[in-house]
Design a protein that fits this description.
The complex is a heterodimer of chains A (about 270) and B (about 70). Chain A is of the alpha/beta class. Chain A is built from nine helices and eight strands. An eight-stranded mixed sheet of chain A has the order 3-2-1-4-5-6-7-8, with helices on both faces. The radius of gyration of chain A is 18 Å and the shape is globular. Chain B is mainly beta and about 70 residues long. Chain B contains one helix and five strands. Chain B is globular. Chain B starts with a strand and ends in a 9-residue tail after the last strand. Classes of the chains: A alpha/beta (about 270), B mainly beta (about 70). The interface between A and B is large, with 53 and 24 residues.
């Protein structure tokens, strides 16, 4: 492929890294990453992957930007309120790096569309904001055998893990199925520190870049938890669960289905 | 007996099941927690039956939603 003079300059701080070099940068430029959700986690991930020169970035989101998003979803600006999140994100990605091809999917990830979208991508970032979607991403990546980064954030806590489907512990190895509706924290208990999304989403982008380059140790079979108040990271070692309903010894899930959505909406009724 | 709860060495007197440990540790919504005992995920149906032993390592793994922080 070969890098242009401008690309050599743009990516010079990557290229001088022994573990990346010109070859690694070319790898990034020919890589494809799908980001599910252009929200708190997806925003920093998209910005860093764009800056890093990941050649194709796909973004799925059906939502429009609203004022409450701007506290943490740093890819969207005040002027973007009311516009589609995928369009707003695509505009910023192109502005940062015209090398990147952006593919936008203005839809919710569902059982009937997600596998087709995932197919062809090298890595997926789960930046979804609800449990059914997280299970759907896990299951779809399992069936497509596409590696992905799972993450979740709540209040001052965040966690993430990298999953190589069929090889390392998956989301369902830990959490068999979505929590019952009554157990989900009520609206008044919820909330999230904005910068927490930046920390965890950036870690997801780090895992994507490492995976694409084939360098370092991935966060597989390990849940990394982070508490912003204590400024404490912990690694919890995990292993594949023989009882896992999708990747275990007797899988009960043999095709993709949508889990029931549990709705909790902080916005005032319109 | 000493049990490592979320990486912390904690002293307990008497016997405890996993369910009782969840209550003792003030886990308000056990439905939101998966439990790993000595490196293996424990089936939820085993929480009440599983007695903890000296030196056990227990991790509480919490469900966490996402970017909009409301679900």
């Amino acid at each position: 492929m070969g890098l242009t003079e401008e690309q050599i300059e743009r990516y010079s701080r990557h290229i001088i890294l022994e573990q990346i070099g010109g070859t690694g940068q070319e790898k990034l430029l020919s890589s494809k990453v799908l980001i599910v959700g252009a929200g708190g986690l997806g925003a920093p991930a998209a910005l860093y992957l764009a800056a890093a020169g990941v050649g194709t970035i796909g973004i799925i989101d059906a939502d429009k930007v609203d004022l409450t998003n701007l506290q943490r979803q740093v890819i969207h600006h005040t002027k973007d309120i009311g516009t589609d999140k995928v369009a707003s994100a695509a505009e910023k990605i192109k502005a940062i790096n015209p090398d990147v091809e952006v593919k936008t999917y203005k839809c919710w990830a569902k059982a009937d569309n997600i596998r087709d979208i995932i197919r062809g991508y090298d890595f997926v970032i789960d930046g979804t904001d609800n449990f059914p979607a997280k299970f759907l991403v896990n299951d779809a990546c399992y069936f497509e055998k596409t590696p992905f980064s799972h993450a979740g954030i709540l209040k001052f806590d965040g966690q993430l893990m990298t999953i190589l489907p069929g090889k390392t512990a998956c989301y369902r190895c830990i959490f068999n199925s979505p929590p019952p509706a009554g157990a989900v924290p009520s609206c008044s208990q919820a909330g999230v520190l904005g910068v927490l999304a930046g920390v965890i989403g950036s870690l997801q982008a780090t895992e994507a870049v490492k995976f694409l380059l084939g360098i370092g140790n991935l966060l597989t079979d390990t849940l990394l938890t982070y508490n912003a108040l204590k400024m404490e990271f912990r690694r919890i070692h995990l292993s594949r669960n023989p009882d896992c309903p999708i990747c275990g010894q007797n899988p009960q899930i043999t095709k993709l289905k949508d889990e029931q959505q549990i709705v909790c909406d902080l916005r005032k009724p319109k | 007996m000493k049990i490592f709860v979320n990486g912390k060495n904690t002293d307990f007197s008497g016997s405890f099941t996993v369910s009782e440990l969840l209550a003792e540790q003030n886990v308000k919504m056990p439905e939101m927690v998966s439990v790993e005992l000595n490196g293996q995920i424990l089936r939820r149906s085993e929480f009440e039956k599983t007695a903890l032993k000296d030196g056990d390592k227990v991790e509480f793994l919490y469900f966490m939603g996402g970017g909009n922080g409301i679900n």
